[in-house]
Amino acid sequence: MGSAREQYHIRLARMDEVAKLRAIEAAANILFDGLELVDENNDPGVSPERVAALIGLSQAWVICGPDDQPVGMAIASEMDGEFPLEEIDVLPAYSRRLGLATARTYQ
Question: What pLDDT is attached to residue 41?
């Protein structure tokens, strides 16, 4: 039997997961409440249209558990021919556990 981390995998996000990715982002932002790192009045998060566009470009990934349900997400944007990571979020219940945000397994 593999480790708990091995039960998770990274795959491309699907168009039917736009709302889930936005929910993951919103939930992850709770961890930063009160730290004044983000001006929530000026940063509404990644719009559903932007998430959908990035999914369409294969520039959005999800971290999934054994049931293939997303518990984390990452998006990258093309900039001058490169694709820097724009955002990575993990649901608070899964944050700082198992190294999910640093997993390198891609399916």
Answer: 54
